Amino acid sequence: GAEGSTLMSYFSKNQIQALKPKITFSTLRDLQCPVLQSNDLQGKPEESCSTEELFEWLGAVWNQVSLDNKSSSFLSTYCCPEPNTVVEKAFLCTITGFIIPETIIQLLEQLCCYFGEPKLAYWLTLTVHGFADSPVSWRESEHGFHKGGENLYNFVIFRNLDYWLQMAVGAHDDCPP
Fold first, then answer.
1. Residue 141: which of 165, 168, 176, 167 has the closest Cα?
2. Which Gene Ontology cellular component terms are annotated (predicted)?
3. Contact 38, 160 (CB under 8 A)
4. First CA to last CA across the chain, in angstroms?
5. Phi, psi of 13 (to 5 degrees)
6. Please, which pLDDT band fits residue 3 given cuts at 50, 70 and 90?
7. Domain count, the chain
8. How many CB atoms lie under 10 A from the CB of residue 151?
9. Phi-psi bin for 26: left (phi > 0), alpha (psi -120 to 50), beta?
10. pLDDT score of 79
11. Given 41, 66, 97, which residue is the final one in a domain?
12. Averaged confidence pLDDT in the chain
Protein backbone atom coordinates (compact mmCIF):
# COMPACT_ATOMS: atom_id res chain seq x y z
CA GLY A 1 0.00 0.00 0.00
CA ALA A 2 0.87 3.65 0.32
CA GLU A 3 2.91 3.12 3.50
CA GLY A 4 5.14 0.56 1.76
CA SER A 5 5.90 2.81 -1.22
CA THR A 6 6.61 5.77 1.10
CA LEU A 7 9.09 3.68 3.09
CA MET A 8 10.75 2.42 -0.11
CA SER A 9 11.23 5.93 -1.44
CA TYR A 10 12.61 7.05 1.94
CA PHE A 11 15.18 4.25 1.99
CA SER A 12 16.20 4.76 -1.65
CA LYS A 13 16.52 8.55 -1.22
CA ASN A 14 18.67 8.21 1.88
CA GLN A 15 20.68 5.33 0.41
CA ILE A 16 20.37 3.29 3.58
CA GLN A 17 22.09 -0.02 2.95
CA ALA A 18 22.41 -3.20 4.95
CA LEU A 19 25.61 -3.00 6.96
CA LYS A 20 28.18 -5.59 5.97
CA PRO A 21 29.95 -7.24 8.87
CA LYS A 22 33.30 -5.66 9.68
CA ILE A 23 36.20 -8.14 9.68
CA THR A 24 39.53 -7.52 11.37
CA PHE A 25 42.55 -9.83 11.51
CA SER A 26 45.52 -9.72 13.82
CA THR A 27 48.51 -11.96 14.38
CA LEU A 28 49.60 -12.66 17.94
CA ARG A 29 53.24 -13.67 18.21
CA ASP A 30 54.84 -15.80 20.92
CA LEU A 31 51.49 -16.21 22.66
CA GLN A 32 51.34 -18.23 25.87
CA CYS A 33 48.48 -20.74 25.47
CA PRO A 34 46.99 -23.13 28.02
CA VAL A 35 47.57 -26.83 27.42
CA LEU A 36 44.18 -28.55 26.94
CA GLN A 37 43.02 -32.16 26.79
CA SER A 38 39.67 -32.65 25.06
CA ASN A 39 38.56 -35.39 27.47
CA ASP A 40 39.52 -33.50 30.64
CA LEU A 41 37.16 -30.60 31.42
CA GLN A 42 38.47 -30.12 34.97
CA GLY A 43 42.13 -30.12 34.04
CA LYS A 44 44.92 -31.92 35.91
CA PRO A 45 47.92 -30.38 37.68
CA GLU A 46 50.96 -30.30 35.37
CA GLU A 47 48.96 -31.99 32.56
CA SER A 48 46.18 -29.71 31.36
CA CYS A 49 44.10 -26.61 32.16
CA SER A 50 40.39 -26.54 32.97
CA THR A 51 37.55 -25.04 30.95
CA GLU A 52 37.27 -22.16 33.45
CA GLU A 53 40.97 -21.35 33.15
CA LEU A 54 40.68 -21.36 29.36
CA PHE A 55 37.65 -19.05 29.44
CA GLU A 56 39.47 -16.56 31.66
CA TRP A 57 42.54 -16.71 29.40
CA LEU A 58 40.39 -16.06 26.31
CA GLY A 59 39.00 -12.94 27.97
CA ALA A 60 42.55 -11.67 28.47
CA VAL A 61 43.48 -12.41 24.84
CA TRP A 62 40.33 -10.73 23.45
CA ASN A 63 41.07 -7.64 25.52
CA GLN A 64 44.79 -7.65 24.67
CA VAL A 65 45.79 -7.92 28.31
CA SER A 66 49.45 -8.71 28.92
CA LEU A 67 49.97 -12.30 30.14
CA ASP A 68 53.36 -11.83 31.78
CA ASN A 69 52.25 -10.95 35.34
CA LYS A 70 54.44 -7.86 35.75
CA SER A 71 54.08 -6.33 39.21
CA SER A 72 54.58 -2.88 37.64
CA SER A 73 51.49 -3.28 35.44
CA PHE A 74 48.70 -0.95 36.52
CA LEU A 75 46.08 -2.78 34.45
CA SER A 76 46.61 -6.46 35.19
CA THR A 77 48.89 -8.97 36.87
CA TYR A 78 47.11 -11.85 35.13
CA CYS A 79 49.28 -14.68 33.85
CA CYS A 80 48.53 -17.64 31.62
CA PRO A 81 47.41 -20.73 33.59
CA GLU A 82 49.73 -23.71 34.02
CA PRO A 83 50.62 -25.80 32.16
CA ASN A 84 51.05 -23.64 29.07
CA THR A 85 53.00 -23.56 25.87
CA VAL A 86 54.28 -20.68 23.74
CA VAL A 87 52.77 -20.54 20.26
CA GLU A 88 54.96 -18.77 17.75
CA LYS A 89 52.02 -17.39 15.79
CA ALA A 90 48.27 -17.31 16.53
CA PHE A 91 45.55 -15.69 14.43
CA LEU A 92 42.70 -13.66 15.85
CA CYS A 93 39.80 -12.83 13.54
CA THR A 94 36.93 -10.63 14.72
CA ILE A 95 33.69 -10.29 12.76
CA THR A 96 31.38 -7.55 13.99
CA GLY A 97 27.80 -7.23 12.79
CA PHE A 98 24.48 -9.03 12.67
CA ILE A 99 25.36 -12.66 11.92
CA ILE A 100 22.77 -15.39 11.36
CA PRO A 101 23.12 -18.94 12.76
CA GLU A 102 23.73 -20.42 9.28
CA THR A 103 26.80 -18.21 8.91
CA ILE A 104 28.11 -19.36 12.29
CA ILE A 105 27.73 -23.00 11.17
CA GLN A 106 29.65 -22.18 7.97
CA LEU A 107 32.41 -20.54 10.03
CA LEU A 108 32.65 -23.64 12.24
CA GLU A 109 32.93 -25.89 9.18
CA GLN A 110 35.64 -23.66 7.69
CA LEU A 111 37.56 -23.64 10.96
CA CYS A 112 37.47 -27.44 11.14
CA CYS A 113 39.14 -27.53 7.70
CA TYR A 114 42.12 -25.83 9.40
CA PHE A 115 42.92 -29.17 11.03
CA GLY A 116 43.78 -30.62 7.63
CA GLU A 117 47.37 -30.65 6.42
CA PRO A 118 49.57 -29.15 7.73
CA LYS A 119 48.32 -30.07 11.21
CA LEU A 120 49.69 -27.12 13.14
CA ALA A 121 46.91 -26.36 15.62
CA TYR A 122 45.89 -28.58 18.52
CA TRP A 123 42.70 -26.65 19.16
CA LEU A 124 40.88 -23.50 18.11
CA THR A 125 37.96 -21.46 19.37
CA LEU A 126 34.92 -19.68 17.95
CA THR A 127 33.18 -17.24 20.26
CA VAL A 128 29.80 -15.66 19.49
CA HIS A 129 28.89 -12.55 21.47
CA GLY A 130 25.38 -11.16 21.61
CA PHE A 131 25.15 -7.41 22.06
CA ALA A 132 25.30 -6.54 25.76
CA ASP A 133 22.04 -4.58 25.52
CA SER A 134 20.25 -7.01 23.21
CA PRO A 135 16.51 -7.20 23.98
CA VAL A 136 16.39 -11.00 23.68
CA SER A 137 18.29 -13.95 25.08
CA TRP A 138 17.82 -17.72 24.75
CA ARG A 139 14.43 -19.37 25.21
CA GLU A 140 11.45 -17.08 25.90
CA SER A 141 13.14 -14.62 28.25
CA GLU A 142 14.02 -11.01 27.77
CA HIS A 143 17.73 -10.31 28.13
CA GLY A 144 18.51 -8.75 31.50
CA PHE A 145 21.24 -6.12 31.12
CA HIS A 146 21.68 -5.38 34.85
CA LYS A 147 25.49 -5.27 35.35
CA GLY A 148 27.45 -6.58 32.40
CA GLY A 149 24.98 -7.84 29.80
CA GLU A 150 26.87 -11.14 29.44
CA ASN A 151 25.47 -13.00 26.46
CA LEU A 152 27.87 -15.33 24.65
CA TYR A 153 28.88 -18.87 23.82
CA ASN A 154 32.23 -20.34 22.90
CA PHE A 155 33.20 -23.45 20.95
CA VAL A 156 36.57 -25.04 21.64
CA ILE A 157 37.28 -27.50 18.82
CA PHE A 158 40.09 -30.05 19.03
CA ARG A 159 42.12 -31.67 16.30
CA ASN A 160 40.19 -34.95 16.75
CA LEU A 161 36.95 -32.89 16.28
CA ASP A 162 35.86 -33.32 19.90
CA TYR A 163 34.55 -29.99 21.16
CA TRP A 164 33.55 -28.09 24.27
CA LEU A 165 30.64 -25.63 24.33
CA GLN A 166 30.82 -22.91 26.97
CA MET A 167 27.98 -20.47 27.62
CA ALA A 168 27.84 -17.29 29.67
CA VAL A 169 24.72 -15.26 30.40
CA GLY A 170 23.69 -12.79 33.08
CA ALA A 171 22.26 -14.04 36.36
CA HIS A 172 18.69 -13.13 35.35
CA ASP A 173 18.78 -14.79 31.92
CA ASP A 174 17.70 -18.23 30.84
CA CYS A 175 20.31 -20.57 29.39
CA PRO A 176 19.53 -23.30 26.85
CA PRO A 177 19.03 -26.78 28.36
1. 176
2. multimeric ribonuclease P complex; ribonuclease MRP complex
3. yes
4. 43
5. -65, -40
6. low
7. 2
8. 23
9. beta
10. 84
11. 97
12. 79
